[in-house]
Design a protein that fits this description.
This protein has about 180 residues and is of the alpha/beta class. About 35% of the residues lie in helices and about 25% in strands. It has a single domain (about 1-110, about 140-165), classed as 3-Layer(aba) Sandwich (Pyruvate-ferredoxin Oxidoreductase, domain 3). It has a 7-stranded mixed sheet with strand order 2-3-1-4-5-6-7, sandwiched between helices. The two termini are about 25 Å apart.
Length: about 180
């Protein structure tokens, strides 16, 4: 099993953190992992993306031009990365702020209202965990217990008190993701 993922959105949406948590979680699951972030100098508010590869075999290169999965969190990323999903792959997106929804017929498209749900849950910081939960419902490439271990590894100790909220976000994302 090899899963090549692009996660893309604005800086500040937790794009890089989501990728880092996936990567650490893959390590906890004894997988080979590659995590390659890309972001502009403006950081918060600018565009950011991260490529994560999870595999049972050695990863030959972290450079990928086509992905099994794209997780898209803003319109600029939709415009750039929708076309990079391999035929038969999946695209997961939060429709908040998306003006041109995905139209491809050779991939499976899912939406998750993570922005609205994070607001309803009273914590906008778990937005990315809601998205991650939706993705893991569709493609359970990482076990939930390893996501928790990945959170413990990637979050500073002073933020470990937030892990239960993050787990709730993951679980809620699994409940609300829907196929378009």
């Amino acid at each position: 099993m090899t899963e090549e993922i692009i996660i893309a959105g604005f800086g500040g949406q937790g794009v890089l953190s989501m990728g880092k948590i996936l990567a650490y979680s893959g390590i906890m699951q004894n997988q080979e992992v590659s995590w390659m972030p890309s972001y502009g100098p403006e950081m918060r508010g600018g565009t950011a993306n991260v490529t994560v590869i999870l595999s049972d075999e050695m990863i030959s290169s972290p450079i990928v031009n086509e992905f099994d999965t794209a997780i898209i969190l803003n319109q600029q990323s939709m415009d750039k990365f929708e076309k990079t999903v391999k035929p038969g792959g999946i695209l997961v997106y939060d429709p908040n702020g998306i003006t041109r929804h995905p139209t491809r017929k050779d991939i499976t498209i899912y939406s998750i209202d993570a922005t609205d749900e994070a607001n309803r849950m009273g914590n906008v910081k778990i937005f990315n965990m809601i998205v991650l939960g939706g993705y893991l419902k569709i493609k359970p490439v990482i076990l939930i217990e390893n996501i928790i271990k990945g959170l413990e590894k990637s979050l500073p100790k002073r933020h470990h008190g937030l892990i239960p909220e993050n787990k709730n976000g993951v679980m809620r994302g699994m409940e609300i993701v829907k196929q378009n």
